[in-house]
Structure formats: C-alpha cells, structure tokens
Amino acid sequence: MKYAIETFDLTKTYDDFTAVDALNMKIDNKSIFGFLGPNGAGKTTTIKMLTCLVQATSGTANVAGYDIATNPNEVREKIGMVPQLVSLYSDLTVRENIDLCADFYGLPEDLKASRAEELMELVDIKYAQNKIVKQLSGGMKQKASVVASLIHQPEILFLDEPTIGLDPTTKRVLWDLVEELNSEGRTIILCSHDMYEVELLCDEIGIINGGILAAFDTPRGLKDTMINEQKNKKSSKNSEVIEIMDELRKEEGVEDSAAYDQLKEKIERKNRDLKELSVMISNLDESMLNHLNNVPGIHEIVEHDSGRLVMDIDSSDESVSQIISEIIGQGGNITSISTKDPSLEDVFMSVTTKYKKEGVDDG
After folding, report:
1. pLDDT value at position 263?
2. Of 40, 101, 211, 219, whose Cβ has the fewest other Cβ atoms within 10 Å?
3. What pLDDT band is residue 132 in, cutting at 50, 70 and 90?
4. Measured distance CA(237)–CA(234) in Å, rounded
5. What is the dihedral of CA 86, 91, 97, 103, to 10 degrees?
6. Distance between CA atoms of residues 101 and 82, nearest Å
7. What is the reported pLDDT for 21?
8. Which of these, 57, 6, 60, 55, lies nearest to 28 by C-alpha position?
9. pLDDT band for position 362 (cuts 50, 70, 90)
C-alpha cells in the first residue's frame, strides 16, 4: 500500500457553509504527516471524516486501504486516535481503561494482557498502571491515552495536539515515542500548532485554510518555495520602481544625472536579494576582517565580541561556498556556520495570510 490516506474531492458542507472544499491529498504509508491550519480552517472536520466520525457530503477517502463511505468499520479497526483532551475514564485506573478499550475491539484475554504489558513498557507507564487516571499528571495521561489507542494495533495513529500544556522534558519523551511508533511501521497523522514539533517530526506537511489545501510539501520544500516567492517578489518590485524612475527621467528631464544614478543605485542596493550568513571564526583578526569587507558579494558585516560575524550576502547558490573559501584562504578557523532561512511559522503565516488576501474565508 503506497498511501496510508488518499482523499478524492473530499467535501463537507453545513447548510450553505463549506467546511472542507474538494480536498485532494496523498499521505505516504509509514510516514509522519503534519496537518496544520488556523482555527476554523477545516482541519478538525477533515480528521472527523477520515476517522469516520462524520460523513462526507461528497467525495471520499481511502484510509488504510478502505473507503470511509462504504467500509467505515474496517477503517475504524485500522486507526487509533489520541485526542487533545484525554478521553479516558477519570475514575478508572490506567490498566482498567486499557482493558476497556481492548474489550471494545474484541481482543481475547491472553492477547489483551500481553499487548497491554508490551505497550505500557514501550511508553514507560507500567509503573502507574494501577493509579486512578484523575491522579495522573498531564504527561502520564497522554501516555496512557497512547496505550489505549494502540491496544488493537492500528496501522494509522491520529495525534491531536499531543504535547499541548506539557513541560519541555515530557514533550521530548513523547516526541521520542512518536518516532519509535513510526519506526515500527505506523503512519502518524500529527495535528499541532507547535511549529517546532511539526518540523522536528514530520516527513511532509499539509496546510489547510478556508477548507482548501493551501500548501503540501516537505518542511524544506515549503521553506524553499517561500524563499523563491520572496526573491521573485523583491525582484519584480525593484524592476517596477526602476522602470518608473526611468520613465520620469525621460518625461521630465533630470538635470543632475549623477544624483539620479546615485539614487537609482541606492534603490537597487536596498532591494537587492540578500541573505544572512552567520559565521564563528575562532582566530578572527583585523587583517581577515578587512579582507572580507572587500570581498564581492558581501554587503555588510556586523562583528560580535564572541568572534561571530553576521553578514548580508548575495543570495546566489554559490555565495556561501565562495565566502567560506575566502575565510579558509585567509587561514580562518570556522567553528560554526549558519544561514537565516524562513521558519515553518513564517511559512504558515505566509500561506494562511495569502489565502485570506485572495478572498478565502477561513470561518
């Protein structure tokens, strides 16, 4: 099975409101997929359709090889769900909740016991199996919820904001757990507003807005798309300004040609497509700094007391390697280097804002 989930014009309407509009996407089998969207974008409605909690108005989807419209029971057997709000019975123990879920799926007693033991060991919650759920911390409740959702060995696990409200240490434990579950062959569908979490874990990301799939790619692919869009936008804006200036020069006759050329150059320089390069050089000296200030492609250098240089450089594909060669050629010892790229949060804001400007309502 190539795709764990594949949707075909999946649509959900409520009276005259379209919550999800002809959604088409393919989620690779045994991958970790991040499903993002602002509040009211259609994300929850999509998940409810994929987990057979609500019926689609039109279109359909295959989940674990079964059609959600014609084979909902088979779909339910193949999926697990860890909701944002833990849905365990608070007055029962961890083990009693797990056994209850196993009974729901009709597991034999011997298999129920062995799986419960195995999963509690996996998520490190066995020590608390006899504790009442309402006595547990947030992280322990999430672990117990994961065990309950995995007791029937689902192929696909849906996680809705699994680490919200948890401390950093507990978050990392759950991140490790997600990666371990994926390494065992499960497909993970992660819904989260934590962009760091999504970028850390996910192979691919889909962003829904106004019921429409606004973006779909790898985290790196989404960032590269944004970089190219920014580059093209800046280049287009710069060309338009220069074109207007040239027309004004022809129409009105600019007497001070040198001043005009200087202004034109200043505008071009200001709108030049640059990127930020940060380099730590352990043996930085005045001679090396003077040399770098005269290297073509480096437009500004800010020196920090630590020996770190932050440079505005040309955004060409060769610029970084050329500057590294210049530093090494001067005998510089580079201890760290990085470029400033858009974050996943920048991408999310850009995509969702763009769709609002284009008239897509995310109600």
Report:
1. 64
2. 40
3. very high
4. 5
5. -120
6. 13
7. 95
8. 6
9. very low
Task: Report yes or no on whether pTM surpasses 0.85.
Answer: no
CA atoms of 315 and 297, how far apart (whole Å): 9
- What the block records as the tokens of 304 is 């920090």
Please name which of 148, 154, 105, 104 lies closest in space to residue 123, comparing C-alpha atoms: 148
Q: How confident is the model at residue 275 (pLDDT cuts 50, 70, 90)?
A: confident
Residue 118 identity: E
Q: Is the pLDDT of residue 78 over 60?
A: yes
Question: Mind spelling out the 3-state secondary structure of the chain?
Answer: CCEEEEEEEEEEEECCEEEEEEECCEEECCCEEEEECCCCCCHHHHHHHHCCCCCCCEEEEEECCEECCCCHHHHHHHEEEECCCCCCCCCCEHHHHHHHHHHHCCCCHHHHHHHHHHHHHHHCCHHHCCCEHHHCCHHHHHHHHHHHHHCCCCCEEEEECCCCCCCHHHHHHHHHHHHHHHHCCCEEEEECCCHHHHHHHCCEEEEEECCEEEEEECHHHHHHHHHHHHHHHHHHHHHHHHHHHHHHHHHHCCCCHHHHHHHHHHHHHHCCCEEEEEEEECCCCHHHHHHHHCCCCEEEEEECCCCEEEEEEECCCCHHHHHHHHHHHCCCCEEEEEECCCCHHHHHHHHHHHHHHCCCCCC
Look up residue 163 and give its two tokens.
């680490």
Give tens-digit pLDDT for 222-241.
988 887 776 666 666 566 66
